[in-house]
Design goal:
- The chain is mostly helical and 101 residues long.
- It has one domain.
- Helix content is 83%, strand content 0%.
- Helix 1 packs antiparallel against helix 2 and helix 2 packs antiparallel against helix 3 (73-96).
- The longest helix is centred in the middle third of the chain and has 31 residues, at 35-65.
- It is elongated.
- The mean pLDDT is 88.
């Protein structure tokens, strides 16, 4: 349980840092302020942001489902499998259909 709480707290910090950076880069690109740097940053951050978002979301879901003394092993398998499938889909979409901006 302590490992999940540690993953949750570390991924929360990285999630907010990456989300803030991604939003700033998107606003800079939209307003044509350092557009080349902003688009490069957005292309570099999309896969790590998806990974951190799934870690944060999966750990949050696990912590919410975990009750006092309840057996959550089937739920943890479903959460991990869902996160792996979603991350695989993100990676596939990222490399199969690259952005043409």
């Amino acid at each position: 349980m302590n490992q999940i709480k540690s993953i949750h707290s570390v991924s929360a910090i990285y999630f907010f840092i990456l989300a803030f950076t991604y939003v700033i880069a998107a606003l800079a690109f939209r307003n044509d302020i350092m557009a080349n740097s902003a688009i490069t940053l957005m292309r570099m951050l999309d896969t790590p942001f998806a990974l951190i978002a799934l870690l944060y979301g999966g750990s949050t879901l696990y912590l919410e489902l975990n009750g006092e003394g309840e057996n959550t092993h089937p739920w943890s398998i479903l959460i991990v499998a869902g996160c792996i499938v979603l991350f695989g889909l993100v990676v596939f979409m990222n490399f199969a259909f690259p952005s043409v901006i």
